[in-house]
Amino acid sequence: MEQVKNDRRTIFGWSMYDWANSAYSTTIAGAILPAYFADSIVPDGGYEVFGWSLSGESLWGLVVGFGAFFLFLVTPVLGAIADFSASKKRFLVFFAYGGAVFTCVLWFMTTGDVLLTLTLFFLAQLGFVSANVFYDGFLPDITTEDTIDKVSARGFALGYIGGGLQLALALVLILLHETLGITEEEAARWGILMAGLWWAGFSWYAFRFFRETGEAQELPEAYRSMPRWWAYGKVGFDRTWHTARKLLGFRQLLLFLIAYMLYNDGVQTTINMSAVYATDTLKLESETIALAFLVVQFIAFGGALFFGRLAGRIGAKNALLVSLVIWSVIAVLAFFLPEGSALPFFGVAALIGLVLGGVQALSRSLYGSMIPEEASAEFYGFFSVFSKFSAMWGPLIFAGIAAATDSGRPAILSIIVFFILGGILLWRTDIDEARASKDQWSFEGVSAG
Question: Per the structure, how many domains does the chain have?
Answer without folding.
Answer: 1
